[in-house]
Amino acid sequence: MEQLVEDHRTYVYSPFSPVLTAFVIFIVVVLFVFVFLGLVGAAFGRIGFSAQAIALLLFAVLAGSFINIPLFTLESREPVMREAFVTVFGVTYRVPAAPVGSRKTVVAINVGGAAIPSIVSLYLLVRFPDVTGFALVGVALVAIISHLVSKPVQGVGIVSPALVSPLVAAVTLLLF
Fold it and tell me: Higher model confidence: residue 28 or residue 5?
């Protein structure tokens, strides 16, 4: 692991427990079924996505959630935690193994959780520029509330309750 951190190569790491991973896979399979049955496809069809494009995006997000692209490395004052498990907001995270005495933290972007959704969002903003103001207000509200409920956890990073951000985004969408 030390070699991967030092070289800043892309690495694969699943922070989720096997039970949570199985649950997420089950949900994605159910979503795939809904997409192909047209229940969700009709909503996305109105904004220009085909059922096949949605299925591809869902698969890409799921597969991409296991890929982190390192951006830069930070030096910390305290040694990074050795292999451990941390439970925050009811979710148990596996802290990846770090070399003994290491004080380096890699800041990375998750492909499935950040890169793909950002690309899709930018595509939609270009396609529908008249909603940019609403989008900026929505992003600001979600960012503020996410900041308020998040907390740093040694060895894991910044953690927030899983459903807070999506629920705030959904409520903001309904208000607009």
Answer: 28
Query: Per residue in 70-89, pLDDT tens?
Result: 999 888 776 655 556 666 66
80: left (phi over 0), alpha (psi -120 to 50) or beta: beta
From CA 88, how far away is CA 46, in angstroms rounded? 38
DSSP codes of every residue in 91-132 = EEEEEPP--TT--EEEEEEEIIIIIHHHHHHHHHHHH-GGGH
Sequence-separated (6 or more) residues with CB below 8 Å from residue 133:
none
Two tokens, residue 156: 């894991």
Mean pLDDT of the chain: 77
- Rg (Cα) of the chain, in Å, rounded? 18
pLDDT value at residue 30: 80
Q: Would you state the structure tokens that stand for residue 86, as one six-digit string?
A: 């941390």
pLDDT of 90 reads: 67
**Which of 28, 17, 95, 16 is closest to 55 using CA atoms?**
28
Provide the 8-state DSSP code for 83: S
